Amino acid sequence: MDALLSSLVSVAFHGVAYGMILYVISVGLSVTMGLMGFTNLAHGVFAMAGGYILVSALSRFDLPFPLALALSFVLVAAVSVVLERLLYARLYGASELEQVLFTIGLIFMSVAVARMIFGTLQQPVELPESLKGPLALFGREFPIYRVFLIVFSSSMIAVLWFGVERTLWGAMVRAAVDNRAMAQAIGINTKRLFTITFAVGSGLAGLGGALGAEIIAIQPTYPFEQLVYFLIVVSVGGMGSLRGPFVAALLIGVTDTACKYWLPQFGAFFIYVATIGLLLWRPAGLFGKSA
Amino acid sequence: MNHPVGYAADSRLRWTEYLPWIVAIAVFFLLPNYLSLGARVLTFILFALSLDLIVGYAGIVTLGHAAFFGTGAYVAGILSAKLGLADPILQLLAGASAAGLLGLVTGAVILRTHGLAQLMLTLAVAAVCLEIANKATPVTGGADGLSGVTVAAIFGQFRFDMYGRTAYLWCLALVFAGWWLVRRLIYSPFGASLTGIRENRLRMQSIGAPVYLRLLTVYTIAAAIAGVAGVLLTQTNQFVGLNVLGFEPSGELLVMLILGGVGRLYGAFVGPLVFLIAQDYLARQFPEYWYFGIGLILVLVVLFARGGILGISDALLRRVRGRT
Asked: ipTM score of the complex?
């Protein structure tokens, strides 16, 4: 009985940590898709870039961990602004097929670049001593880094939600998601709004990739392999919303961890089957507005 | 986008439409050392044709078309290596039916959604197939792949020789059959209704067209054709590996189609030809740059040349004609 309880607790704990990471990475995708209607399959590239930045900042340049995390956010956000202005902006009105092909092209290029710079091997993360080892909580032991992940991600999410729900910028984003033409008509500079939102979303993806580098292995095939998960989070949660993907990400994190723990031979089957069933029931996702 | 091929156009064969076949037969006699590459190109032409049918004509964006290709490849491989069924025609029929059935079942779900959810589901179906092929090691060989595939003589007469001549002609015959079928489809009223759905789904629905049924039909047909292409790959390579499934082959196929030109029928011929020949030369020498290159090509085609190679040549021809 106690063994079952402790495995339940452990699955829930690791699942929540994984789900938090999935959410931090995918939330930007949900918002940019809802806001700009842009199918950005290359979103995982930003997460991978964040992971590589963290790993090289820690092991090659010996930077402290908080600085490395901050760098992964800032650098990815900065690069994404350039990409958005130079490339993405040209395709805002384009068909879905064109956006899909364009972003797949970006994935191919980034995979090649990652392979050239870092090789094909998985990058190990050198955590600082203070984040290694177990932490005793409620009479059980939890890996300290996962606890840190959950706490840190939760606070990031709280900041993000505050930003979207309570600030002027958030109000403008919500207005533009609901009705872009009307938002423009009342004088919101949607072009600048897009750029800033895109940068924040990509930066968060970079941060998520960096935070989760220990859970989701950083290797060149990352944008291909994780794409399904990010898309599941966004489409199950409902794009354009903040809450939907959060619920979806936690569900997927816990389910995936549970499946891998108890039914490893089935791999990710259950996730896919559940996703298909859920989308048949609610095609617009859990919290999406039906089109 | 300009689509010169369709129901409204003249359905008689133009002289240019003989060109691919003349070239294919000329290659057989003039370049005997390149027949295995040729068979590979032909296989991917058939695969790209099936993709063009759903992406180019029906407007369904899919990231998981390799699921059907891989199903065909694995069905043929398992029949031959595990069950000892070596007859190529039976393998073909089994591969096509299995892929078609998968297309019907998954299409019934996928085509109810659209946009992002649809994209994700096509990807998820391919991911599930990859997962099955990877985990069911006793049947599929898992990550090591499935070797020991034997193929008997076609009609008991034509053996697969070591020079790849039979394989080449076998692929050519099936590409011809596939081309004929696809061409008939797109010049038919059925093809016209697909184009209509692509251009304006809502309006097609309001004039009473059975949109869902049409899409499901074309999805199933395309899946079966992709299955045939998969069977051909197994028969010519006598090996099946995990690389026939998943996101990368689907992505590469999209690159080939886009490179040739989407929704033009012959884009599916030009794209794989150029792509695979370039791959044969470049990919072995510069694998990293190769990947970078195909990504770059995709980005450039989308940004500057949306009609692909055929679109560019059309535009050039028009300019030349305009001057004279």
From this structure: 0.82
